[in-house]
C-alpha cells in the first residue's frame, strides 16, 4: 500500500499538552503491550505496518512537525513538507507529486489518503487495503471509505450510496446537517464521510496539473505559497462523477477533544496523580514531576504540562479553543529530531532549559550572536565540539560558550543537560547553522 497520512493543525483543543508545534497526534497517551506509552501517530504507523509491513507511508505535514515525526517514527518514514498551510487539495497534490517524483510510485498505483489521528483497530487498516485494491481496479476515479454511523452526528458530512452493497457508486454528498436531518440521511442508508479515500496516483496528478501550473514536485514545492487555499472536496470530489464508496462497520473515533480522548484512554491516571474513592469518570494526564490529587470529582479531566494546567468538566472541555487562543506564551516543551527540550525557568535576561538528546544524535553545529550559553551535563556521556575542538563529556561537566562561538554536542548514550542562555536579546531566531567538518 501507498498511504498518505494527513497530519496538520496545532491541536489547541488538547491544551496544555498540545501547542503550536506539538499537535495532538504527538502526545504519548496510549499504553502499549510493554507498558510504555505511544502517541496517535506512533499507534497508527505501528498498526499500518502490522497489516502491511511493506507499506510506503508518507506523512503530509507542516515544517514545524518534521522534527517530532522523525523523533517518534525515525528517519525511514516519508515526509511531504508543506511550506505553509494551503488546505487539503494543495497538500494532497504535493504529497502525490512527492510519491511520483521522489518515491517513484507509478501513475497506475493506488494511493490511500487518511487522517493521522482517528482511534481505530486493526480492521480499519484491513479496510484500507481493500480500499486500495478497489482503487487499483479503476472502476471509479475515487473510492471513499463510508463509516457506518452509530448516531445522528452533526460533526460529519454524509455519503449516500446508490445501493446497500459493500461497494457501491455514490448517489450524492450531504454537508454537515442538524441532528434531525442526520436522522433522515441515516434512514436513507447514508454513511459518515471520514475523509478517507483512495485513487490511482495518475488521476490526482492529472487534476493537480489541470488546476495548478507546475512541472514536478520541486517546482510545486517552490511555488506552494502562491497556491489558492481550497479543500480536496471542493476542488475534486464535488466535480467527480465516478466515485465509489466502501462500507466500514468497525470502530472509528475522532479524538479531537479532551472529552473524546478520555473515552479511549486505557488508564485513568497518566503520570503522577491520585484519585480518591469518591471520584468517578475522572482522568488525570500529568507531564509535570509533581503529584496531582483529585477528590470527590465527577466527569472531569485534569491535565498539567509545562504549558499550563487544565481542570475542566468533560463536556465543557470541547469549548477550550477560544480561551487558549487568548494565551500568549512561548513554547515550553518541544520534540526535536535529536531529542526534546523543556523550559524550566524564564527571566528577563536568562532562559534555563532541560535538554534530552537521544543516543547517537546531535544538535546542529551553530552559534548565537546575542547570547552566551552554559551547558551542565546531568547524565549520560557524549562529546562537545566548540569552535572545532572536540572533548568527551559526562555527568558533572560544565561547558561555556560565548556569543559567536560555534558549538554542538553529540550523545553517545542518552544525554541530559541543563542549558542556561544569558543575554538581553534571547530569541529562537538568533541562531546561525554551520557545516561540521569531520
Write the layout of secondary structure elements.
Blueprint: E1 2-7, E2 30-31, E3 37-38, H1 40-51, E4 56-62, H2 66-73, E5 78-82, H3 88-101, E6 110-115, E7 118-120, H4 122-137, E8 142-147, E9 157-161, E10 167-174, H5 179-187, E11 191-200, H6 201-211, H7 217-222, H8 232-235, E12 243-248, E13 252-254, H9 258-264, E14 269-270, E15 273-275, E16 283-286, E17 292-294, E18 300-305, E19 308-313, H10 321-324, E20 333-336, E21 339-347, E22 350-357, E23 365-367, E24 372-379, E25 381-386, E26 389-394, E27 398-401, E28 407-411, E29 415-422, E30 432-434
Parallel strand pairs: 1-4, 1-6, 4-5, 8-12, 14-16, 15-17, 16-18
Antiparallel strand pairs: 2-3, 6-11, 7-13, 8-11, 9-10, 9-11, 10-12, 18-19, 20-21, 21-22, 22-29, 23-30, 24-27, 24-29, 25-26, 25-28
Helix pairs in contact: 3-6
Report on this structure:
The chain folds into 3 domains: 2-254, Spore Coat Polysaccharide Biosynthesis Protein SpsA, Chain A (Alpha-Beta Complex); 266-319, no CATH class; 338-434, Jelly Rolls. It is built from 10 helices and 30 strands. The chain has helices at residues 40-51, 66-73, 88-101, 122-137, 179-187, 201-211, 217-222, 232-235, 258-264, 321-324, and strands at 2-7, 30-31, 37-38, 56-62, 78-82, 110-115, 118-120, 142-147, 157-161, 167-174, 191-200, 243-248, 252-254, 269-270, 273-275, 283-286, 292-294, 300-305, 308-313, 333-336, 339-347, 350-357, 365-367, 372-379, 381-386, 389-394, 398-401, 407-411, 415-422, 432-434. Strands 20-21-22-29-24-27 form a 6-stranded antiparallel sheet. Strands 8-11-9-10-12 form a 5-stranded mixed barrel. The chain starts with a strand and ends with a strand. 35% of the residues are buried.
Amino acid at each position: 500500500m501507498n498511504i498518505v497520512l494527513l497530519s496538520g493543525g496545532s491541536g489547541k483543543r488538547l491544551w496544555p499538552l498540545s501547542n503550536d508545534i506539538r499537535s495532538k497526534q504527538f502526545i504519548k497517551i496510549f499504553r502499549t503491550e510493554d507498558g510504555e506509552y505511544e502517541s496517535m501517530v506512533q499507534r497508527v504507523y505501528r498498526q499500518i505496518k502490522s497489516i502491511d509491513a511493506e507499506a510506503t507511508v508518507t506523512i503530509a505535514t507542516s515544517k514545524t512537525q518534521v522534527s517530532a515525526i522523525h523523533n517518534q517514527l525515525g528517519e525511514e518514514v516519508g515526509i511531504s513538507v508543506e511550506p505553509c498551510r494551503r488546505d487539503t487539495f494543495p497538500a494532497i497534490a504535493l504529497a502525490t507529486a512527492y510519491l511520483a517524483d521522489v518515491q517513484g510510485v507509478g501513475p497506475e498505483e493506488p494511493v490511500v489518503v487518511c487522517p493521522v489521528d482517528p482511534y481505530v483497530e486493526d480492521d480499519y487498516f484491513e479496510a484500507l487495503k481493500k480500499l486500495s485494491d478497489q482503487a487499483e481496479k479503476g472502476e471509479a476515479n475515487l473510492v471513499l471509505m463510508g463509516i457506518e454511523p452509530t448516531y445522528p452526528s452533526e460533526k460529519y458530512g454524509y455519503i449516500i450510496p446508490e445501493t446497500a452493497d459493500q461497494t457501491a457508486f455514490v448517489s450524492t454528498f450531504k454537508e454537515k446537517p442538524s441532528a434531525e436531518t442526520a436522522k433522515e440521511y441515516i434512514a436513507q442508508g447514508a454513511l459518515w464521510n471520514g475523509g478517507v479515500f483512495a485513487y490511482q496516483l495518475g488521476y490526482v496528478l492529472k487534476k493537480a496539473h489541470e488546476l495548478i501550473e507546475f512541472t514536478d514536485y520541486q517546482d510545486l514545492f517552490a511555488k506552494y505559497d502562491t497556491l489558492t487555499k481550497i479543500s480536496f472536496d471542493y476542488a475534486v470530489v464535488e466535480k467527480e462523477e465516478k466515485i465509489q464508496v466502501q462500507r466500514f462497520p468497525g470502530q472509528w473515533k475522532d479524538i479531537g477533544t479532551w472529552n473524546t480522548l478520555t473515552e479511549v484512554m486505557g488508564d485513568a491516571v497518566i503520570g503522577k496523580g491520585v484519585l480518591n474513592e469518591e471520584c468517578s469518570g475522572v482522568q488525570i494526564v500529568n507531564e509535570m514531576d509533581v503529584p496531582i490529587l483529585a477528590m470527590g470529582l465527577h466527569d472531569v479531566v485534569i491535565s498539567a504540562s509545562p504549558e499550563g494546567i487544565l481542570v475542566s468538566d468533560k463536556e465543557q472541555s470541547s469549548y477550550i479553543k477560544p480561551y487558549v487562543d487568548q494565551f500568549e506564551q512561548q513554547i515550553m516543551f518541544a520534540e526535536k529530531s535529536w531529542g526534546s527540550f523543556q523550559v524550566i525557568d524564564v527571566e528577563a535576561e536568562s532562559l534555563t532549559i532541560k535538554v534530552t538528546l537521544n543516543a547517537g544524535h546531535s544538535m546542529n553545529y551553530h552559534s548565537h550572536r546575542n547570547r552566551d550559553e552554559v551547558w551542565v551535563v546531568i547524565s549520560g556521556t557524549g562529546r562537545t565540539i566548540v569552535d572545532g575542538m572536540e572533548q568527551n563529556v559526562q555527568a558533572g561537566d560544565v561547558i561555556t560558550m560565548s556569543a559567536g562561538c560555534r558549538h554542538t554536542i553529540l550523545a553517545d548514550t542518552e544525554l541530559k543537560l541543563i542549558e542556561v542562555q544569558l543575554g538581553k536579546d534571547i530569541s529562537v531566531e538568533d541562531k546561525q547553522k554551520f557545516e561540521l567538518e569531520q
